[in-house]
Amino acid sequence: MTVQESYAPVLASPYQRSVAEYWNHEKNPVNLRLGEVDGIYHHHYGIGDADWSVLEGPQETRDERIIAELHRLECAQADLLLNHLGNVSPDDHLLDSGSGRGGGSLVANQRFGCHIDGISISETQVAFANEQAEKRGVADKVRFHLKNMLDTGFDSGRFRAIWNNESTMYVDLSQLFPEYARMLRHGGRYVTITGCYNDTYGLPSRAVSEINAHYICDIHPRSSYFKEMARNRLVPAAVVDLTEATIPYWELRAQSPLATGIEKAFLTAYKDGSFQYLLIAADRV
User: Do you know which Pfam families this protein is assigned to (predicted)?
Assistant: First the structure.
């Protein structure tokens, strides 16, 4: 069976098929080596002040120190997102939309004890994440599905909270937020952490365009998030500019054995003001 045949019910366009192919074959050490630190595999960046002392000390353990510090910063980012989900009880259902290898879902379950559904269009990611849930003995509450976030098939009003962690740049926001508004119960919370280009800069800068090409994505302007949320009864409760907070992660990553070459573009775009790293939390009204 070809990928196109197996994904026919999930992927609605050639672009989505290309994204699925990318993540099905992705084995980037910057994602895998960090997850090996404690078995929590995130697929996002980090925030907070870096411990620059990791660059000092014995050369033979330098790489391990840097990797552990990068993982600490990405875990801090995940914790910040969870802090904005509001009051969550063990009986609640949450949706991790664009769940990657499952780290965010597992951390959410550890904190809240709740039910988590993770979704991805990557068959490889879904299989990996379900294996992690099994290993941790939480597969009864944390499950990962091969689903398209624009058309999930979940029941209306199912979720207390939904989040995206650096995954909205792969979809059309005018299609995404109606689906979220449908699935969230009244008073439910939506949270995203995302990179977006700064409307006041004009069109996407050269550095932002490099990021788009590297990840096969389409970074949205900041204004699109608020416009499409407003159209779908999602009212912002918090907006946090994390741009300055993420720069240390990228500066450290650029000096790490896991650098991929895209670090310069991120640092240039953040520092020239053309790119922003935002957390947006919104309530379904």
Answer: Methyltransf_11
